[in-house]
Structures are given as C-alpha cells and as structure tokens.
C-alpha cells in the first residue's frame, strides 16, 4: 500500500522535519538566479530593490520571469530525490505509487479530463461575459510560453505533489499511524502555502476554501487510488492550461496567454463550486473508472507499524 511503504520503525518524524528543511533550502538555492537577476536590473537601472515579491515578479518580461521562478522547483525536486534516497533509504517510486511502476495512463487520463473541463468551463464563462476578457494572443511570446510551460510547469506541480501527497503524507502517517491525519494535515498545509498569493489579498480569505479544498481532493484521490498519479495529472493540467489560456494583472504570474481577464477579482460561486460540486463529480468519475471501494478504511483506517527484523527474530525465539 502507498502510505504503508513509508511507515517504518526507522522513519522517525524528525527525519521528515529535517528533510523538509533540506527541500526548502534546495528551493531557496534555486531562487538565487532570480535574485541575482533582480539585483542586477535594479543596479543597472539605478532603481530601488523591490520591496515585495509581487513587485519583483513584474520586473521582467513574463516568459523570463516564469523561467527564472520555475528553476527553484527543479532544485526542490532534486532535493526530494536526495532526501528520499539518502535520508529515508526509499526509492522515488515508493513515494509515487503503491504499484510496481508508475501508471502513466492514470496521469494522462487525469490530465486530459481536467484540461478538457478547464477549457470548456472557461469558454462557457467567456461567452457569457465577453466584456471581461481581451484577446492577448501574440504568436512568438505564446510559443515561447508553451515551451517553457510544457517543460517547467509539470516539474513545478510534480514537486508540490511529491512534497504534499507523497513525502509529507507518508511522514504524517509515520507520526499518527492512521490515514485521516495525513489527509487533513497535508490539505491544511497545502492550502496555507497559498496564503501569500495576491489572489488572497484581492478576494479575501474565503478563497482559502478553494485552496484547502483542492488539497483535500488531491489527498483523497491519492489515498483511494494508492498513488499520486491522478494528482500529478490533475495538478499539471490545472496550472498549465491556466497559464496558456488566461492571465490577469492580479494573479501570481502574468503570462503571454491567449486571453487576459480584465475584471476585478471577487470571491463568488467560482470559489465554492469546484469544492462542493466539481470535485465530487470528479471523484465519482475516478471511482467508477478505477473501481474504488472501501472508502472509510482507505481514508480513515489505521496503519500497523511493521516490525523490524530484530523484533521478528526475538518473537520467533
């Protein structure tokens, strides 16, 4: 089983805390090129160093900003691999899936399903309120965005999934020896990581319902499907389609997308609907396709800590 693969007597919870610090440090190292670029531009233009993250992100051409920011996730992903292999003595596969190998068909199905839904839902919104959007398409910048996005956005989303639904979920399973606590904790932490996003400032803390709800949804499909493949596909589709399709002045990243949202952000039905309607529908689709059963046990059941070889030998004698 996926969670049980990380539950070992030697996998003390302090190792996950230390491993998390290592991964965060690796991410900070990956941010050095962006910091150097900001410092260089500030010095060259004799301008003040940006006072906040939002100002720094707007200093460069959007494609360059996206590339520089995404580098940190490359370093973080390398940090995950190092921590899993050398601190926990596990394989990357063991924090990916409970299957013998990664099921790429699951990743692809989840990606295509959510990408299709995202495009259709945007088109419905667009034709209902065309005045809120402007045509933002420019061929060359969009093609560059497509290349950068296709390469680096899946790295970014996969890094987040490996951290929350893989590494930390197994870590909290080691601590609590059950399944509901890792599900709740990773969802809360995942949502809280977005609290500094400009969307929160614009829409208010009600949008945290969406972020935490999304974390909960991704955690549920991970536990029910015994691996993070579906979460990997969903998260990649969500961010990649969003980056290519529509941008706005108040989002985390401004991209050379096809459309630009000119409306003032507000937290309405679009925040609540995914959590209370769309995600349950997706759970139903996934459950039918992959024949999920025994929901209560898979989401809230206890985890028995395996005995080490010394204990087993003493018990036998």
TrEMBL record:
Residues 143-241 form the CAAX prenyl protease 2/Lysostaphin resistance protein A-like domain. This is CPBP family intramembrane glutamic endopeptidase. Pfam families: Rce1-like. Keywords: Hydrolase, Membrane, Transmembrane, Transmembrane helix. It comes from Flavobacterium soyae. The keyword Membrane applies. Coiled coil: none annotated. Its EC number is 3.4.-.-. The chain crosses the membrane at residues 16-40, 64-86, 107-127, 139-159, 180-197, 203-223, 230-247, 267-286. The keyword Transmembrane applies. GO terms for molecular function: hydrolase activity. Signal peptide: none annotated.
């Amino acid at each position: 089983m996926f969670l049980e693969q990380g539950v070992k007597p030697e996998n003390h919870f302090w190792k996950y805390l230390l491993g998390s610090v290592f991964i965060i440090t690796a991410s900070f190292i990956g941010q050095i090129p962006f910091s150097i670029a900001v410092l260089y531009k500030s010095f060259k233009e004799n301008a003040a160093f940006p006072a906040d993250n939002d100002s720094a992100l707007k200093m460069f051409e959007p494609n360059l900003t996206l590339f520089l920011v995404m580098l940190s996730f490359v370093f973080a992903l390398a940090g995950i691999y190092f921590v899993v292999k050398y601190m926990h003595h596990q394989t990357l596969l063991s924090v990916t899936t409970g299957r013998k190998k990664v099921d790429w068909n699951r990743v692809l199905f989840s990606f295509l399903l959510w990408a299709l839904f995202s495009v259709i839902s945007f088109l419905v919104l667009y034709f209902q309120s065309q005045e809120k959007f402007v045509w933002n398409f420019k061929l060359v910048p969009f093609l560059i965005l497509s290349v950068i996005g296709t390469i680096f956005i899946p790295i970014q989303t996969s890094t987040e999934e490996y951290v929350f639904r893989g590494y930390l979920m197994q870590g909290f399973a080691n601590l609590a020896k059950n399944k509901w606590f890792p599900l709740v904790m990773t969802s809360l932490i995942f949502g809280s990581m977005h609290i500094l996003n400009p969307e929160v400032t614009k829409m208010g803390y009600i949008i945290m319902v969406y972020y935490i709800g999304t974390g909960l949804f991704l955690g549920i499909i991970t536990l029910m499907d015994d691996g993070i493949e579906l979460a990997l596909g969903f998260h990649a589709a969500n961010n990649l389609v969003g980056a290519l399709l529509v941008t706005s002045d108040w989002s985390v990243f401004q991209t050379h997308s096809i459309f630009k949202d000119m409306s003032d952000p507000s937290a309405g039905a679009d925040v609540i609907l995914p959590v209370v309607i769309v995600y349950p529908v997706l759970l139903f689709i996934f459950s039918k396709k992959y024949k999920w059963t025994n929901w209560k046990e898979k989401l809230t059941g206890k985890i028995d800590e395996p005995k080490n070889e010394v204990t087993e030998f003493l018990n036998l004698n």
